TrEMBL record:
Keyword list, A-Z: Heme, Iron, Metal-binding, Transport
Protein name, UniProt field: Globin
Family matches, as Pfam families: Bac_globin
A molecular-function term among this protein's GO annotations: oxygen binding
Organism of this sequence: Flavobacterium hydrocarbonoxydans
């Protein structure tokens, strides 16, 4: 039974590594991520450690703008729903507590915003 909350960088690494292992094997979103990350998974994971460390632990190790690299991805709401399903199930399988809940809220907000912006830019290009 899961009894602990996200508390430190090791927990962030466990969350990120477990989540992206699921992503890489997923039939729907795995091919998109694997093609985009070709040979750069370690670099991406390091960036995700810093991102979530900054968001959840308030240890400011990430700087950057997360949206631009995602702008041209061939994704839609179905892909973001699957991403959230995998993320939520990963968090729930590993952690329980305030920061675990915060991670899911932040991920949902990010998925919504990314999908909205991708659709917005896609619609601009198609006018």
């Amino acid at each position: 039974m899961v009894t602990q909350d996200i508390a430190n960088l090791d927990d962030i690494k466990l969350l990120v590594n477990t989540f992206y292992e699921k992503v890489q094997k997923d039939d729907l979103i795995g091919p998109i991520f694997n093609q985009k990350m070709m040979g750069r998974w370690p670099e991406h994971l390091e960036k995700m450690y810093r991102f979530w460390q900054t968001i959840l632990l308030e240890e400011h190790t990430y700087s950057g703008t997360p949206f631009p690299p995602h702008k041209q991805l061939p994704v839609n709401q179905t892909h973001f729903d699957r991403w959230m399903e995998l993320f939520t199930s990963t968090v729930d399988s590993l952690f329980v507590g305030k920061l675990a809940e915060e991670a899911k809220v932040r991920a949902a907000n990010m998925a919504y915003m990314f999908n909205y912006k991708i659709e917005y830019f896609r619609n601009l290009e198609n006018q």
